Amino acid sequence: MDVPQWLTPQEQRAWRAHLAAHRLLFLQLDRELQDTGLSLNDYEILVNLSESPGRRMRMSELADATIQSRSRLSHQISRMEAAGLVTREDCEDDRRGTFAVLTDHGWETIQRVAPDHVASVRRHFIGLMTPEQVSALERTYSPIIDHLQAVRGAR
Residue 85: is it exposed, middle or buried by C-beta count within 10 angstroms (0-12/13-18/19+)? Predict the structure, then answer.
């Protein structure tokens, strides 16, 4: 049996700092969005749909884009449908496929909420770093994201 390669004290501090920052940032942004009736996950779905051609995406592509399981996304879309933010439409060329489509109410919601949310992201994240740190963060996370997406896709 292989002996584990334990994290060094510096690696352990970096790992724990990453976890704490991620969790605290997610909770703060989610809390601030609650006043609008949205969760951070709802917001992410609305953004993806608003940036897609025809303001629609196949459910499978939306699940991949938001890094959610198909079943979790389906439940979330059901809640968002009940709120009038999205609808589902059958895919004409694939009977098994379904589109999530942004409604006019969903479009109005993202237009109304986005400025405050972006200000929050700037206040709690981007604005706390120099441009060089933002660039370094992007360079640091890109290979990690690529690796994990490849691992996820290999399942």
Answer: buried
- What is the C-alpha to C-alpha distance for residues 6 and 9, in angstroms, rounded to an integer? 9
Pairing of the two strands 86-91 and 94-102: antiparallel
Contacts with 137 (C-beta within 8 Å, 6 or more apart), sequence order: 129
Of the pLDDT bands very low, low, confident and very high (cuts 50, 70, 90), residue 120 is: very high
Q: Identify the DSSP state of 101.
A: E
CB neighbours (10 Å) of residue 109?
23
Helix (H) or strand (E) holding 43: helix 40-50
Residue 144 CB coordination number (10 Å): 9
How long is the chain? Answer: 155
**pLDDT value for 155:** 60
Residues 43, 54: Cα–Cα separation, whole Å? 18
Tokens read off for 23 = 């969790």
Q: pLDDT grade, residue 18 (50/70/90)?
A: very high
> Binning pLDDT at 50, 70 and 90, where does residue 152 land?
confident
Residue 12 has pLDDT above 80, yes or no: yes
The distance in angstroms from the start CA to the end CA of the chain is: 25
